[in-house]
Each structure stands twice: as structure tokens, then as C-alpha cells.
Fold this protein.
Amino acid sequence: MKKSKKLQELLLDAGALILSGFLFAVSYNMFFLPGEIFIGGAGGVAEMLNILFGLPTGLMIIAINVPLALLFCVFYGYGSGIKSFIGITVTSLAIDFIKFLPAAFPQPKENAFLCAIFGGLTLGAAIGIMLYRGFTTGGSDFVALLIKLKAKNISTAKLIAAVDAVVIIGAAIVMKNFLSVFYSLVSVLVSSLTIEIVTGGFEKSKMAFIFSSEYDRIASAISEKAGRGVTLIDGEGWYTKEKKKIVFCVVKKNEIFLLKSIAKSIDPHAFIVLGDSTETIGEGFKADISDSTFKPKEIKKRGKER
């Protein structure tokens, strides 16, 4: 049973990587590259290098991300970096291997707005699928999280937007195409909205109730690995009259997979109830609505109770 569950998760991860890799290739080769629309992060830099020098976009994304990934692992842990590197590699290689895809529109530069819309949709879907399965694509995320180590009072969302803006504006200056800034911002907006939908709608957080005899180990693991506060609630089984502890915590949408993985790895029979939170105000939520799943090593432990 345990091996079957692991195989199922492995197949789901593989399927997510294949699908997201294909969608990444579609967004770049059918929309962004033909329309000369730049996106932020490593992808935007790689795209600019491709247009200027003909360098392979996918390989350039990997080359740019390797030093960032190593630096990320130093501060956030090597466990967090493994899936990130897998995601970066798969999507980057897909862009080069599926480059035979034709431009979506006969005159892509004249249809740049449509390229921005549909490119944003496919890119957002690709990133959303990866985040849902616990992967990431690096680039802006890495840079923003590294900057956040010093700029703790600035939200992750604002840092990512700032990094993307620098890349987009830089690309516009180099390419002498300032109109592309408008289309690029449109694609970033569309992709961001698509990511929200794919990862579970517009709700920013989920409430989790976990019932398990291994409540202490699960609570400790959530606090250490997910960096989320945990509260233990006294409970009693109606039929058995047995006193039990219920693990309660609130997590972001992109942390749901991590939470379930933690609980099930400790107790495969753990009973987990997830519910939407209309609004969550407090440390790690309202003040910073786009924190990454990954936490720096030095702030992973926030305590067992909020």
C-alpha cells in the first residue's frame, strides 16, 4: 500500500512535469518569442539572448539559474533546492526540444497583444501546475527570496514584481522596443491570475485539521519544515471516548502539497481536513500574501503555537 502510494505520487509528479514543460514550450515558442514579448526573471534574460545572439533559450535559463540555485540552497536548504532544480531543468529543456512549434499568429508582432494574453495563460498554467506539485521554476523567485533575507519588511510579491520589472525594462532598452514593456506587463498580469486559479482559486490560505496519534511529530515537522505556526486542540472521539489532540494550522495554497506530504510521511493513516479561509490576518499572511513555500534556514522554527 505504501509503495503504491509512493508510485502514485511519483507518476503525478512526472505527469505534472511533462505537462508543464510542454505548456512552457508553447508559451515561449508560439507566443513570447515570435511576438518579442519579454517576461521577467531568467526566462526574460534568456529570451533576450536568444533574439540578439541566437543562443538556445532553454540552456540559457539553466545557465542563469545554476548559480542562483546553489546560492538558494545555501540559505534555504538543499532539500528545497532539489525540486526547484528539477523543475528548472525540465521546463528549460522543453523550450529547446519543442522549438519546432510554429508561431500562433501569421504576423506575431502585429498581434503582440494576443500573444501577451495567450502566452500569459499558458505560462501561468505551467507555473501553477508546478507549484501545485511542490516544484518551482527559479529565476525571479530565487532572486526575490534571496533579497528578502535582508529586506524582510518588503513582501515577496513586490520583490518578484521588482525583479521582473528590471528585466523587462532592461530588455526594452537593449532591444529599443519600449512598446514591448506594455505587452510584457499584460502577460505578467495574465500569468499571475492564471497561477492563482490553477493552484486553487483566489483564496490565499487553507485551514488544516489533522487527526493522528502521531500529532506531536506531525506538529513538530510542520513547524520545522513548513515554517508555519501550529496549535494543538483538545478533542475526544465520540465512539471511543478517547482523548485526542488535533493539529490545527493555516497554510498558503502552494503549501498544501508540502503539508500533506509531511503528515502522510509520518502517519499514512492521518485524517486531514482542509477548508478555505475567507481571510487570514497575521504573521506570514495578510502582511505578505505571496510568501514562497520555502523558508530560510534561520527562520524555519517559529514555535509550535501562534
